[in-house]
Prior knowledge:
This protein is of the alpha/beta class. The chain contains 15 helices and 23 strands.
Amino acid sequence: MSVPGFHPFTGASDDLVQAGHCNNWIGGELVDARSGARLDVHNPRHGAVMGTVADSDAADVASAVEAAKAAFPGWKATPYKERAQILYRLKALMERDLDRLSWLVSHENGKTFAEGKASVLKGIECLEYGCSLPNMSAGGQIEVSRGVTCKVDYEPLGVVGCVVPFNFPVMVPMWMLPQALVAGNTVVLKPSEQVPFGLLHLAMLAREAGLPDGVLNLVNGRKDAVQAIVDHPDVKAVGFVGSTKVASLLYARGASLGKRMLCLGGAKNHLVVVPDADLELTAQNVAASAFGCAGQRCMAASVLVAVGDADAQVDAVVAEAEKLVLGRDVGAIISEAAVERITGYIDQAEKMGAKVRVDGRGKQVDGKGWWVGPTVLDGVGRDWPAGCDEIFGPVLSIIRVKTLDEAIAIENDNPYGNAACIYTTSGFVAEYATARFEAGMVGVNIGVPVPREPFPFGGWNQSKFGHGDITGMDGFRFWTRARKTTTKWALQSDQNWMS
């Protein structure tokens, strides 16, 4: 990739590698923030600086919007299938650079290499779905009366904004970019300032694939950059993934300006286990859900509700958690502040009477970095902070109840509605629970019930602000507007009210 100022990441192991400075990508050029302000980017595994990133403000956002606005007419005029061909080429380039992207995600986010690779592969799957949209997004046309036809076309909105979190630097942007780009929009995207390098590499691959300059623009920064994207009058819609607090504030801010907003927030996902649940399946699946990606994902299991005499299943989960090795099976925590917050919840639950059956506090790998090991808290109260708050770390709280209805009530009483799961070998129990969970994504013996493409991703209640889901056809429709055309060319001999 011959873009002046871009230097591909060279890391191919867990050793600390310097990544240099991450500029903004605006109108096909790498540019620093106008103010010259920069932020450090850390490698969580080492707890050390691996580079810097531009800290942009409203002026930088305005430049990116202007570039996107200038590129929009040409991109809109490009046929659907030609837009999709660029995404096909981008898919091939991501597959070519799979290991490089995976190591980059691992270094800036703290995931293990295997987790980083899995997340990039999921992003590629989302991109693959976007490539298929020209064959799925065709509007309909029918003759509604003699000589009268009605049709619908889906048109792009114009310049749109995306704001994405730290936990999946390459995957989450792919929830939005394929649909938005294939639809004909131009994009201003703000990566998390904690993990900017993966998206910059992705933008370089998009340029190599033939994406015209200005169609995709990256503006790095913090709160000021996010607010500027939402506030800019030429940004027609904004997609956001992050915490519930910020999602709620941004949704209200954008909606008050008449913008189309879809903001995904946090979660407190409940896994319910009943005594007939398969021991091995339950143990492995619960552990993977709770401790995978160090619990730093909105789909992580954070509460295991044990119904009745489920001691065998709980003990099996504890045993599985004890097998996991930091650095090999479980990655690092994004920041030192996050480690302090997570361990604070564990300390508090212990003081309130929980039994710490697996303790991940005070852990390190090779004497450095930011880590919390898998932690299991037994006997947590349903109204305790550890039982209610989104901890966003590798902490599993176990709540004991007598009946399945009690367990379902606990899930439904929490303000979020992202995901829930039932572990059972009974079809009746599975159907009973899944029909009653107040969650947008439900699993049966699957603790991370993420729908695979083309099924859409999205929760309910305080886990989402806006209409529809962010992936699948819902996502495509979010980034488009429907134009309905009714046509008549000649007077008909037979008349009715439509004529």
